[in-house]
Design a protein that fits this description.
This protein is mainly alpha-helical. The chain has a domain of 48 residues. The chain is built from three helices and no strands.
Length: 93
């Protein structure tokens, strides 16, 4: 009869092991994310339907909106590229 000599690996769990994994953002990327959020809120307010009596209309051309959204997309690309897992270096831009 053969003896089974398999060993099992045991690991000690720490608080860090039990905490959920999350991406980390460098401070400048976090600031860019906050600014992108604020920019989107501004665009939402500028494009809200107005009453016909509203004198405070701000005309936004489709070209201007396209430029705003294109810039936001570029900003968000940079933020996504800056995100990294804890313990790993942030990728270079």
């Amino acid at each position: 009869m053969r003896k089974d000599h398999r060993t099992t690996a045991t690991t000690a769990t720490t608080a860090a092991d039990r905490s959920p994994m999350a991406y980390q953002l460098p401070e400048d990327a976090h600031l860019a994310l906050v600014q992108a959020r604020d920019h989107l809120r501004l665009l939402a307010r500028l494009t809200e339907p107005r009453t016909e009596a509203g004198d405070d209309e701000v005309p936004l051309s489709p070209l201007a909106l396209a430029h705003c959204f294109d810039r936001l997309a570029g900003d968000l690309d940079g933020i996504v590229q800056a995100a990294h897992w804890p313990g790993r270096a942030s990728p270079s831009r």
